[in-house]
Amino acid sequence: MMRAPSSDLPLVIDEVSLHAGATRLLDRVSLTIIRGAPTLIVGPNGAGKTSLLRLCMGLVSPTAGRVTWGGRTEHAPERRAMVFQRPVMLRRSTAANVGYALAQAGVPRPQRAARGADLLARVGLLELAERPARRLSAGEQQRLALARALARQPEILLLDEPTASLDPAASRAVEEIVLMAAQSGIKIVMASHDLGQVRRLAGDVVFLLRGTVHEQRSASDFLERPATPEAAAFLRGDLVI
Questions:
Q1: Does domain 11-236 bear CATH number 3.40.50.300?
Q2: Contact yes or no for 162/148 (Cβ under 8 A)
Q3: Fewer CB in 10 Å around end: N or C, the chain?
Q4: How is the chain split into domains, by residue range?
Q5: Which tens digits make up the pLDDT trace of 142-158?
């Protein structure tokens, strides 16, 4: 009998601290990420959002505490993928960037062309398949980065402010892909500084400040009834440091 693939969910962060030299990036963070609508991590610059995503991906190990994926502690990111704020494009065509991701994901060579075309169609880049990836616009590069991440068929997709440097039209295109991925059953965990994006995408919100979790609650509760003075100030647009 074939075994079902093990799940990376729930993703549990248990009393985790993360230091870089003398700098404390995260301080005794505990949270649990489960299936469902996207989880958005919000907070001011320097709050620790990127560090938290890197922990979730297994790219860094905690200084204290532990991270588990579906009850397991190994780091191998077989069921998760991450897109960075400024993704690096390989010096090859748009299609070849996706082909490389499919090869890394273990997709047999005869299946890669069809799978690659399907992924490019999903992110609206099929007509640009032969364009050098480094000649794409910033928004197109971010969509290509999403296609490469989706090539892994992830269970968890981690996104680090993927629309931070994009204009509204490009941001909307990226958000549509994120929502489509969420609706297909992929768990989205996304850092954002955009409260409009929280309203459009989030099922629940993690509010991070100075490396600590101040709130984790439904998006509607967070937006309408913040539980801490710091969250209320952040929602008003005040500088919170």
A1: yes
A2: no
A3: N
A4: 11-236
A5: 999 999 999 999 999 99
